[in-house]
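Example record used in the benchmark description.
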Amino acid sequence: MITLPCLSILQPWAWLITRPDLVEAEARAAALAAGQMKDIENRDWPTSFRGRILIHAGKRYSRRTHNAFTEDLAGDFGISLPAFEQMQLGGIVGSVTIADCVREHPSIWKMPDCWGFVLRDQRARPFIPYRGQLGIFNVPE
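Model output (structure tokens):
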């Protein structure tokens, strides 16, 4: 059986990595340059994995959390999140290439004292319901 590596990420971070609202390559490049797409995934553990990986949106996400992030992201970054009901939960939402794993990075998304998975070529995919797991896990192709 062929499997693909996958990483579960809570919303709205999975949305900010994949940005399914930005279809045109130019719009995605502009959003990335403006810091309106995540180019780093922060973790308390390092990875030696490099390459293409699926992005899984975790199931836990409350309306209260969404409202707080909506306000913060709009005020701090000019990012408009979709309505709570449109946030995809509990499934595969995209893919990305992990290019590196670093402790320091100039990205506005890099948190201190965390490992930063450097992300490239972020893409949204049609939603596929799937149960998430901790760490990097494999899903059937």
